[in-house]
Amino acid sequence: MSGSRWRVAGVVASLLLFGWYTLANFFPASVRQDSSWLPDKAIRLGLDLQGGIHWVLGPDLAVAIEHELDVLRASLQETLTEKKVTPARIAVENGQLIVDAVSPQDTATIREIAIETKVLGIARTEGNLLAFKLTPAWEREVRDRSVEQMLEVIRRRVDDPIQGIPESVVTRQGDDRVLVQIPGGQLDREQARNLLQQTGFLEFKIVLDEAPTEELLRKRHADGLPADTVIVFEKEKGSDRVLSAYLVPKAANLTGESLTDARSGMDPRYGWIVNFTFNSDGATKFGKLTGDNIGKRLAILLDGQVYSAPSLQTRIGGGRGFIHGRFDSDSAAELSVILRAGSLPVPMKIEEERTIGPALGADSIRSGIWASLLGFGLVAAFAMIYYRLSGVYATAGLLANVVLLLGVMGMSGATLTMPGIAGLVLTVGMAIDANVIIYERIRDELRAGKLPRAAIRTGFNKAFWTVMDANITTLLAGLVLFQYGTGPIKGFAVTLCIGIITSVYTALVIPRLLFEFYPGNRPVQTLSI
Amino acid sequence: MFELIRPDTHYDFIGKWKYCVAGSIAIILLGLAAIPVIGIRWGIDFVGGTEVQVHFAEGVVTDEARIRDAVQSVGVGEPSVVRYGEADSSPGFLIRFQSGAEDQGAEQNQIVDRIQQALVQQVGALSVDRVEYVGPKVGAELRRAGVKSMLIAFALILVYVGLRFSAQFAPGGVIALIHDVLVTSSIWLLCGQQFDLQVLAALLALIGYSINDTIVIFDRIREVMGIHTAQDLPSVINQAINQTLSRTILTSGATLLAVIALVLVGGEVIFPFAATMAIGIVVGSYSTVYIASPIMLLLTDRKKAGESKVPAKAKKNGKPAKARA
């Protein structure tokens, strides 16, 4: 019996462990975190249960492409002016860049220049009229850039420590989507839309003084900061740790309004750089600002926080310039995203929405609880009426299954959705199947004349693979569903998969152990089954 | 011992396979025939569109027609408006409409706000319980992924059953599964219900669950085959089905009990899932007994007939199997 004693210990230990995690689910997060004996992690409620906004956003490609063509038009025009080619018309229309040249030679020149950019392809030609569109590769690039920008902007808004929205989720979904989840009734749909679609505030300021920390900076200006200045910070990405403190003027030297584009690129001298373009007004101001402050650093602020502070080497004229400073491809791309994010509206559109009001969520929780209780009750009643004492054993197994399932979900911080609750109820119904298969087998053995002890052993052994097969196939279907499903449906797949695994364990182990307690080794002639 | 089904039944299940197969085919054909008549009601998950669930404040008296007028007044064409819930004091409505032209995502989103305003002005105070919008692109993706996942699930189970049993068993099991999905879908369609992600999830779970009974019977067929090698296959199968009959009915019945709890008190949010699952469980048990085993028998017969080189018999027995497959 020592073998079985170990098994009892194992079962009890697992029940205690997962019971502890299951228990945690019944306490609010604040209580859990303050308490010294409860685990921090618990099951999260899906948006369909707690209510909230679920948006899948995609870039508005038409707008993004139009903007890209506009930038290309400006640069093409510049090149054409240099080459003294003056087309009759150059404009962006319906996702195409239209150039109406005046002579065949001009047409040839324009075509050559455009093709050389490697981002424009001929859409159609008509006499001296040329229509270009973006090459597929560049269109993909534009799409990727738009998604990056969306992700950056939305994340910044939603994660903002002051105005941000707690518990919200912003992740990339697939290649070209961004998933935004805002739980609870924190924002209505209009507020959420405004929050996501407004542009950030980009400013350029000349750095007057700098130090690693605010304290040091203040020490240097013991008799008060100079008039109209303010201290701003550069923080480590994704944390609140201050990397540098800068003293800058209160009023911006230049704002992002006049920026028309920013993107990362390679420079033979500096490696990775960030190119940017201003409109004509911004170009003049930026030229003067940089010319007057050579050798100083230029702080680039987005919504009041410093993102980068490159030092100015030369006057940057013509409205085009670049920022260099030990970038790698990632950090250069990131800065360009920030610059664009602060200057351009994010061209995005909602591809999918699943928004649930908190009242409906609460309703769902209520009916979910009732359905679970009723489902469990019906199944347990069936087991106990049909199988008597053995049915009580099976019910103990069912109960253990629920504890393990909720415990595992809590431990892994899984999300429970309404379909997830359905999965839980379904699991209870399927868990009893294993017991039915085993018990019917035991009955067969008893009818064949075996004594209870032998019948129990044979029943469990012979039914083992049948139970495994039956559950493995359901698990396969559950895994496919997990792979395919999103949101609530994924929640169903999660409970189903975990529930199948826990139910196999509890259905095979718990009643078996209980049979060892009674009848155990007693020479009983009949079995309550 | 409490026995619902006596262990010593001797029903002839195999003998009736023709009627059963004919019955199943009839239901599937009826479902197919109903498609052009009543049409497949796709949920917005698969075709795109907007669904708004609202309920009015207590005391607001209204009906579908007034809601429809209000919704149309903001420029939505052909909305479908359905009343739900029993509470007459605070009526609830489900408003559905197809999305407009492509690339209307942002606008679509604002349409819901405009509808809400129009309803408040023209009908009375209300709260929006749920907004679901699926753009045409996402809808197409979900549709593709749905079909793909269904095929993958079938393939995985075919492989698993093929590995665990012999190739002789696997086709019967999988054909029974396809049968379950088709018959359940037909019934669902004939009930005028719509197909959405939940229904797909239920059908997928069903694929995994419904094979269970079949495995139990196949296991028993194998066992009986080992014991009574001299017996012919039809009586072996009949014996196996009879021996496992109580199990087949009890397992499905127990799961059905849990699912019925969901149907009864789970609320309308989960109703499509629960109801599909309930139908599917019943269909699944039926097919285990009346479809899976006969198919297995037919496939085996054909093979055996081929080996013994009796072309006439092979042809005769081969036909129904082909018609089912």
Search tags:
heterodimer, A: 529 residues, alpha+beta, Multidrug efflux transporter AcrB transmembrane fold, Alpha-Beta Plaits, Gyrase A, domain 2, four-stranded antiparallel sheet, 20 strands, 22% strand, B: 325 residues, 2 domains, 67% helix, 9% strand, elongated
Q: Approximately what portion of the residues of chain B adopt beta-strand conformation?
A: 5-15%
Q: In which range does the helix fraction of chain B lie?
A: 55-70%
Report the end-to-end length of chain A measured between terminal Cα atoms: 24 Å
Reported CATH architecture of the largest domain in chain B? Up-down Bundle
Lateral arrangement of strands in the main beta sheet of chain B:
2-3-1-4
Number of helices of chain B: 10
Q: Which shape of chain B, going by the Cα principal axes?
A: elongated
Kindly name the structural category of chain A: alpha+beta
Unreliable segments of 5+ consecutive residues of chain B: 305-325
The coarse overall form of chain A would be elongated
Largest interface, counted by CB within 8 Å of the partner chain's CB: A-B, 81 and 74 residues
Give the beta-strand count of chain B: 4
Task: Please report the first level of CATH classification, the CATH class of the largest domain in chain A.
Answer: Mainly Alpha
Average pLDDT of chain A: 86
CATH fold name of the largest domain in chain B: Multidrug efflux transporter AcrB transmembrane fold
Looking at CATH, the homologous superfamily of the largest domain in chain A is Multidrug efflux transporter AcrB transmembrane domain
Oligomer: heterodimer
